[in-house]
Amino acid sequence: MSELNLILLGPPGAGKGTQAALLTADFGLPHIATGDILRAAREEQTDLGLLAKKYMDAGELVPDEVVIGVILERLGSDDARDGFLLDGFPRTIDQADALGARLEEGERRLTATLLLDASDDVVVQRISGRRVCRKEGHVYHLDFDPPKNEGHCDIDGSELDQRDDDREDTVRNRLAVYHAQTEPLISYYDERGLLRRFDGTRPPADVHDHIRATLATLRLEEDL
Ligand code: ADP
Ligand code: ADP
What we know:
Layout: E1 4-9, H1 16-27, E2 31-33, H2 34-43, H3 47-58, H4 64-75, E3 83-87, H5 93-105, E4 112-117, H6 120-129, E5 130-133, E6 139-141, E7 160-161, H7 168-182, H8 184-191, E8 195-199, H9 204-223
Parallel strand pairs: 1-3, 1-4, 2-3, 4-8
Antiparallel strand pairs: 5-6, 5-7
Helix pairs in contact: 1-9, 2-3, 4-5, 6-7
């Protein structure tokens, strides 16, 4: 069967990370999340992390040339050779063009871009209740997916924090940035016949089932 090369697209808080965790478990794909890579770099205080910090704190995008470099390198690594799941990349047309060019060079192609649709009101509510564990970044929600033990991760027991950029004023800016810079990717991938839409307001298991069903159909079509 051909490789599965997927992009998860959607506003902050739409559920990209949540679906990515389910899909990588299904298909054994590497989960390549720019936000996670940048947060890890901040934690380690590398040059990349120090540069990214000021953009992330303001809810702005980290400059294209920086993010593109990081992702293209990551896509060249061994574990991404047979497929990948990109989460949070591309976020601009220039990023999408750079990804497209690299895939073409390697005679690879995208399977689909999975769009998680959710209104601003829904994502603001999701983001305000999002909590992540200190150790591994496992994601919870105070109302929709609370941990069993308040304030602690079910998986590794570490403490749960709110991301700095999940505070209300930054979230408004992140949404404005999404509408201005990332939303154009919806028609970009639609025009290329690669866009698949999902109702991100459904419960996580429903969204996941729907994505799986769509991928199964796509793969059947490919094998015909
Ligand atoms: P969310 O999960 O809420 O969509 P992410 O964790 O993906 O947020 O991203 C957090 C921040 O990291 C963004 O607000 C932005 O500053 C930076 N970032 C992540 N991905 C990219 C990207 N592809 N291009 C530029 N900046 C990015
Ligand atoms: P993204 O990666 O797109 O920023 P996340 O997967 O981190 O989004 O989800 C944002 C928040 O909403 C998290 O607190 C998560 O637990 C919660 N969440 C994710 N998917 C759903 C859903 N389908 N219904 C309700 N809450 C959800």
